[in-house]
């Protein structure tokens, strides 16, 4: 008999592995952790969620144990499951002696067995996981129930269900690990499979980072933080049937409005409603505008109200309200933090202040004849609030207004008997030559300068007279003054492409509005008003009108080196930091070439990969990505930096 075995037969001979174990149910209070368990990190992570899952579905995987001393059993594999079971017992959701299904092993090495169990286990692929969630939801299980049964938060379940809504082709890419979970989350902001596929498959590989994908899918939408949305309100927009896209993975800034025409219509309607109360004020015209720069970008002139003296009853009521305001404020200061009475007292303070402002505003009136030539603009400011600008005069009406004011001046002269105004200079005496008159008046002027230098209040008024007049009554009256301010005031709005988006320009306009309401409405009253003001008031006004004449604008072939140097000195003196007033957004970036955008990102400390990617994409995509990359960095271009200031703040440099 041939007893030889061929090589082939030897190679295929099966190897028999002996597995010695038996299944038992052991009381929970007899199970103890084994020192041989290899899992040391994250042993408590997600323990509560695991406990919830075990309670809902039972212990799917048995514990692997071996006998220990004193009737106990060591858990060699399944330490987290044991921890979850003990947590259930501690919370009263499981009996302490509840029978636990276990696999009893003999004297195996505990460390080797624990390692084998953890190494052999393979986590479920993320696509399989989210599709399983989708199947549960499709079978009628609500996200809240899924969360409770699997020990997850509701938002986590909703996020996974959102990912399950990705296009099948996109899920295939994710299953093949050719897409990160963050990229998938970015694509999930759109419910359109076509859009998801277009953005992913048509975008070059270097432009598939989550930020770029999200930007491409929301380019035509309006962010919920936009001023138009803040004005109308998200609820009103939704009630009108407007579409909303919410990014479940970026809730802080992940809500977008998809119907821009509807939003614009709602804003216009709301502005028109806000303008209704102004129709009875007697203006020649009333307009609404979405443009925050309409007041200073439309070439309008202005008229301002005149303030009359308060009647005795008005003054008495104002005094009484002032006392009540002080009393309520004293009450508030006496309260402890969190006292429920604070809210009621604060409401009373607001109401008192409203009455005070109503009395003060009631003392301001416009000249009816001037008002008949002027109008009112209700516009949406850069913060999303409706503002009413009164007293705007269109270009075609400015000549009529000037004619009206000249007629008023002639009428006042006739009423005074034809006498020359008291402020007119005396005529030179007959017989003096022109040269002598010039010499005498020059000597007189020198003496006048000495006296004026010793009278600061009068000097301030003398300086403010032409400055204020040329700003607030420009175009109506020629202001020839003893103190000459000959430099033409520089208008800033024409130098700015989108003045409505310039925050400093809006703040400057608001300051002008406040002073316009304080100053007398008639040029004839300005000199007397200035002489009556306290020095601190004049100093405040001086600061404003001086600033109105500051020109730090550098134009092409500008030879005004000394002017620009002085503007820089002023900036250093006031510690100007343009980061408080300006951000490198799309308005700025659109003015640059792609190479220029790349230089900006490089200077701002962005990675070389991002800089190279910018040069390869379309201009619109480059702008959107650069705006995202620069957000929060505090980068400034050279013309906006104050002397000694770097492109980035110290913390980021």
TrEMBL record:
Domain (ParB-like N-terminal): residue spans on this chain: 24-119
InterPro entries in the cross-refs: Chromosome_partition/occlusion (IPR050336), HTH_ParB/Spo0J (IPR041468), ParB/RepB/Spo0J (IPR004437), ParB/Sulfiredoxin_sf (IPR036086), ParB_N (IPR003115)
Protein name: ParB/RepB/Spo0J family partition protein
Biased composition (Low complexity): 418-430
Gene3D superfamilies, alphabetized: 1.10.10.2830, 3.90.1530.30
Taxonomic lineage of the native organism: Bacteria, Pseudomonadati, Pseudomonadota, Alphaproteobacteria, Hyphomicrobiales
Family, per entry: Belongs to the ParB family.
Top-level taxon of origin: Bacteria
Pfam families with a match to the protein in the record: HTH_ParB (PF17762), ParB_N (PF02195)
PANTHER family on file: CHROMOSOME 2-PARTITIONING PROTEIN PARB-RELATED (PTHR33375:SF7), CHROMOSOME-PARTITIONING PROTEIN PARB-RELATED (PTHR33375)
Annotated stretches, region: Disordered: 406-430
């Amino acid at each position: 008999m041939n007893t030889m075995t061929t090589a082939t037969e030897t190679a295929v001979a099966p190897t028999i592995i002996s597995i010695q174990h038996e299944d038992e149910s052991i009381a929970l209070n007899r199970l103890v952790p084994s020192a041989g368990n290899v899992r040391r990190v994250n042993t408590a992570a997600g323990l509560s969620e695991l406990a919830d899952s075990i309670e809902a579905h039972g212990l799917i995987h048995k514990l692997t144990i071996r006998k220990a001393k004193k009737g106990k059993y060591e858990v060699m594999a399944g330490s987290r499951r044991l921890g979850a079971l003990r947590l259930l017992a501690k919370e009263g959701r499981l009996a302490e002696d509840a029978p636990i299904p276990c696999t009893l092993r003999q004297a195996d090495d505990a460390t080797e067995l624990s390692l084998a169990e953890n190494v052999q286990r393979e986590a479920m692929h993320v696509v399989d996981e989210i599709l399983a969630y989708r199947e549960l939801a499709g079978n009628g299980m609500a996200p809240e129930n899924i969360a409770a049964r699997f020990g997850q938060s509701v938002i986590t379940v909703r996020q996974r269900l959102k990912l399950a809504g990705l296009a099948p082709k996109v899920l295939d890419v994710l299953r093949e690990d050719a897409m990160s979970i963050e990229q998938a989350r970015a694509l999930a902001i759109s419910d359109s499979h076509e859009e998801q596929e277009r953005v992913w498959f048509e975008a070059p590989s270097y432009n598939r980072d989550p930020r770029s994908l999200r930007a491409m899918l929301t380019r035509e939408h309006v962010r919920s933080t936009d001023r138009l949305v803040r004005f109308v309100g998200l609820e009103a927009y939704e009630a009108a049937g407007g579409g909303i896209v919410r990014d479940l993975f970026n809730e802080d800034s992940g809500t977008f409005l998809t119907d821009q025409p509807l939003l614009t219509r709602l804003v216009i309607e709301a502005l028109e409603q806000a303008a209704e109360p102004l129709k009875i004020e007697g203006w020649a015209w009333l307009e609404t505008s979405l443009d925050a720069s309409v007041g200073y970008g439309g070439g309008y002139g202005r008229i301002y109200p005149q303030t009359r003296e308060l009647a005795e009853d008005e003054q008495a009521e104002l005094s009484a309200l002032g006392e009540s305001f002080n009393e309520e404020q004293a009450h508030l200061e006496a309260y402890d933090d969190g006292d429920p009475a604070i809210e009621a007292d604060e409401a009373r303070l607001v109401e008192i202040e409203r009455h005070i402002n109503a009395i003060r505003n009631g003392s301001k009136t416009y000249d009816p004849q001037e008002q008949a030539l002027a109008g009112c603009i209700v516009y949406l400011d850069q913060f999303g609030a409706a503002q009413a600008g009164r007293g705007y005069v269109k270009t075609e009406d400015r000549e009529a207004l000037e004619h009206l004011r000249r007629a008023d001046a002639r009428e006042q002269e006739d009423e005074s008997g034809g006498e020359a105004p008291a402020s007119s200079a005396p005529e030179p005496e007959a017989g003096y030559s022109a040269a002598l008159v010039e010499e005498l008046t020059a000597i007189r002027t020198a003496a006048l300068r000495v006296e004026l230098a010793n009278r600061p209040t009068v000097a301030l008024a003398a300086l403010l007279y032409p400055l204020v007049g040329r700003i607030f009554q420009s175009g109506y009256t020629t202001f020839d003054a003893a103190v000459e301010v000959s430099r033409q005031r520089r208008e800033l709005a024409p130098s700015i492409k989108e003045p409505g988006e310039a925050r400093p320009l809006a703040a400057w306009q608001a300051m002008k509005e406040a002073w316009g309401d304080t100053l007398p409405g008639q040029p004839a009253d300005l000199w007397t008003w200035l002489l009556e003001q306290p020095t601190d008031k004049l100093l405040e006004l001086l600061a404003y009108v001086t600033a109105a004449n500051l020109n730090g604008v550098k134009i092409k072939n500008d030879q005004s080196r000394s002017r620009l140097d002085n503007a820089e000195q002023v900036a250093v003196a006031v510690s100007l930091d343009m980061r408080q007033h300006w951000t490198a957004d799309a308005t700025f970036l659109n003015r640059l070439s792609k190479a220029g955008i790349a230089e900006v990102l490089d200077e701002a400390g962005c990675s070389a990969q991002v800089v190279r990617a910018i040069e390869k994409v379309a201009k619109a995509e480059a702008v959107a990505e650069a705006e995202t990359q620069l957000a929060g960095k505090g980068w400034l271009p050279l013309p906006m930096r104050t002397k000694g200031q770097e492109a980035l703040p110290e913390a980021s440099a």
